């Protein structure tokens, strides 16, 4: 059999060549692209907002149940001009950040320590597991007795709340380090520090980020409740105050702000995760 | 004036860095040469179960030794003892006549899995193998050179997760070679690869071994692979060396040549001497 006898049969040629009829393909492609883009995640919130505004304006939604979004925006503007909103926002954010930093860094340190050291684990892990089983909001009365309604009360509660997700996930990430990679590192003469820095810690990062995102959720939850129960400033305090004066628009504003802050924290965490875990197949954009 | 030189140095990559004179130890690699290995009465037990009952073996410097044996017979255990990853229960392993701790030879073990760090770029994974020199300023250049030796220099900046199985194993090979070992132990490194990739990799391993001259001990479950690569094939059974077979065939050897086939048959006959092995009838 000679090569010259081989000819390509017709059906092998693709009937539709890419780009041959672009006007037929483009609309589908761009709609898909739009739905897959980052902007798409805002389509549903925007629609909800529109429906909300429309029903409020048509009188379907009594104002004593839910004020129109425009009224909430007006309230936001009013409170911004008086300076009430920025001050409260700043107070809340400060509490959240300080509490998170204290609780988070302690948790990270203990997670690492107990992950690598059996002695550390023996000494502290049981204690942590016991405290973990107390819902941190059950501590509110005690915390008020300890700290009064000072800032430190909220900071303490936030720190306590973020501690466990970060502690447990850091600890777990370190503990489940890939034994084969550790053996590989040792066989290539890595020191303990190199082993930790190059093998164990990077391997624990995905787990640590899971803890981080949980912690951020708990951070807001704790703060909202703590500020609503007892505070003299902050978004939660603003909401409680507004309730007493029947300012529904401010109450709704406070809730929306929490939603936005929560989203902001989560986006930050996601961004950090994407940056730190570039190597992870789950974060590699398909080219 | 000094600034001028600095700027030029920064602009012109050809200029050597000013403050870093090339250290003596970072001279270009010479082929490292091998190391003779003497194994005397080596035993290994895990708790109650004894795996190796007394292995006696001499591997010449620069020799390529293939080790075969049924699954679970202790091949990996033997390699780990040779590579110093485990301590023997009894007996000793000598390198050029001295205990491992007292020789300057470098031994490396290539695992069955690539065991690459998923969070390190390919070139950084290779740099792990540089040993004490991985912190040197020349580490990236050296790693890149080793990567070139296995034909993957263009994948230096990729993450391991995007490589194929064969490419990952080539990176692992480059890493094992990075510190120019005198002794390379290979634990079924090609076992998980498809047949065609495996043949390529065998040729690569053989070529690098011939260039570098290290002593190689290859564990494999593939009898053909053992014969294609080994100067000698040993069979481990019941915790001892049961069979020893010199492969006196010139290199490069040819897969499917009558000499290779004859040796293969001999080993398989021995392995299945209860008669369960039937040589395949060649199609007419
Ligand atoms: N760390 C260990 N602890 C207990 N038993 C082991 C250990 N490593 C290997 N073994 C046992 O030793 C035997 C030989 O194992 P191995 O050397 O891995 O065999 P192979 O020849 O398939 O590489 C097996 O029965 C295995 O179960
Ligand atoms: Mg094995």
Describe the structure.
The complex is a heterodimer of chains A (287) and B (284). Chain A has 287 residues and is an all-alpha fold. Chain A contains eleven helices and no strands. In chain A, 74% of the residues lie in helices and 0% in strands. The longest helix of chain A is centred in the C-terminal third of the chain and has 38 residues, at 192-229. The model of chain A is unreliable at 1-22 (pLDDT under 50). Chain B is built from eight helices and ten strands. The longest helix of chain B has 18 residues, at 195-212. The radius of gyration of chain B is 21 Å and the shape is globular. At the A-B interface, helix 8 and helix 9 of A face loops of B. Adenosine-5'-diphosphate (ADP) is lined by residues 46, 51, 69, 71-77 of chain B. Adenosine-5'-diphosphate binds next to helix 2 of chain B.
Give the total of domains of chain B. 2
Q: How many β strands of chain B by DSSP?
A: 10
Q: Care to count the β-strands of chain A?
A: 0
Shape of chain A: flat
Report the sheet-strand fraction of chain B. 15-25%
CATH T-level fold name of the largest domain in chain B: Rossmann fold
Please state the CA-atom Rg of chain A, rounded to the nearest Å: 27 Å
User: Based on the structure given, which CATH architecture of chain A is correct?
Assistant: Orthogonal Bundle
Bound molecules: adenosine-5'-diphosphate, magnesium ion
Placed side by side, the strands forming the largest sheet of chain B appear as 6-7-8-3-9-10
Number of helices of chain B: 8
Query: Pairing-aware structural class of the strands and helices of chain B?
Result: alpha/beta
Secondary structural class of chain A: mainly alpha
Distance between the termini of chain B: 82 Å
CATH class of the largest domain in chain B: Alpha Beta
Mean pLDDT of chain B: 84
């Amino acid at each position: 059999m000679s090569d010259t006898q081989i000819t390509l049969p017709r059906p092998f040629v693709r009937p539709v060549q890419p780009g041959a009829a672009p006007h037929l393909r483009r609309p589908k492609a761009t709609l898909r692209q739009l739905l897959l883009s980052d902007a798409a995640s805002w389509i549903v919130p925007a629609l909800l907002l529109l429906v909300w505004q429309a029903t409020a304006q048509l009188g379907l939604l009594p104002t004593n149940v839910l004020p129109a979004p425009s009224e909430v925006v007006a309230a936001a503007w009013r409170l911004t001009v008086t300076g009430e909103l920025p001050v409260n926002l700043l107070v809340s954010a400060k509490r959240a950040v300080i509490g998170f930093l204290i609780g988070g860094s302690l948790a990270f340190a203990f997670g690492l320590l107990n992950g690598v050291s059996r002695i550390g684990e023996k000494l502290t892990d049981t204690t942590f597991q016991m405290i973990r089983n107390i819902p941190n909001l059950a501590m509110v009365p005690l915390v008020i007795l300890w700290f009064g309604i000072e800032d430190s009360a909220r900071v303490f509660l936030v720190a306590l709340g973020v501690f466990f997700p970060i502690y447990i996930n850091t600890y777990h990430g370190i503990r489940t380090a890939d034994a084969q990679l550790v053996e590989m590192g040792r066989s290539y003469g890595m020191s303990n520090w190199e082993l930790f820095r190059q093998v164990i810690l990077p391997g624990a990062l995905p787990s640590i980020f899971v803890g981080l995102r949980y912690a951020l959720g708990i951070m807001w939850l704790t703060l909202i409740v703590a500020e609503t129960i007892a505070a003299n400033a902050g978004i939660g305090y603003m909401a409680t105050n507004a309730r007493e004066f029947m300012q529904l628009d401010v109450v709704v504003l406070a809730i929306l702000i929490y939603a936005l802050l929560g989203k902001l924290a989560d986006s930050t965490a996601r961004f950090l995760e994407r940056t730190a875990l570039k190597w992870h197949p789950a974060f590699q954009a398909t080219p | 004036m000094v600034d001028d030189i600095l700027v030029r140095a920064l602009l012109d990559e050809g200029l050597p860095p000013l403050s870093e004179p090339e250290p003596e130890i970072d001279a270009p690699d010479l082929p490292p040469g091998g190391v003779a290995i003497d194994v005397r009465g080596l035993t290994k037990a895990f708790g109650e179960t004894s795996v190796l009952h007394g292995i006696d073996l001499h591997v010449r410097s620069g020799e390529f030794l293939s080790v075969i044996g049924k699954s679970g017979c202790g091949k990996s255990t033997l390699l780990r003892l040779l590579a110093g990853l485990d301590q023997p229960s009894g007996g000793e392993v000598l390198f050029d006549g001295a205990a491992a701790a007292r020789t300057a030879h470098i031994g490396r073990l290539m695992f069955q899995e690539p065991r690459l760090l998923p969070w390190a770029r390919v070139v950084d994974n290779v740099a792990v193998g540089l040993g004490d020199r991985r912190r040197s300023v020349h580490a990236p250049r050296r790693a890149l050179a080793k990567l070139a030796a296995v034909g993957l220099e263009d994948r230096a900046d990729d993450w391991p997760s995007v490589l194929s199985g064969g490419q990952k194993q080539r990176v692992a090979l480059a890493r094992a070679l990075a510190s120019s070992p005198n002794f390379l132990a290979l634990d079924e490194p090609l076992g998980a690869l498809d047949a065609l990739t495996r043949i390529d990799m065998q040729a690569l391993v053989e070529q690098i071994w011939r260039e570098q001259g290290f002593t190689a001990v290859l564990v494999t479950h593939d009898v053909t692979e053992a014969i294609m690569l080994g100067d000698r094939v040993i069979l481990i059974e019941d915790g001892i060396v049961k069979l020893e077979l010199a492969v006196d065939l010139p290199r490069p050897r040819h897969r499917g040549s009558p000499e290779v086939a004859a040796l293969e048959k001999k080993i398989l006959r021995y392995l299945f001497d209860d008669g369960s092995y039937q040589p395949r009838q060649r199609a007419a």
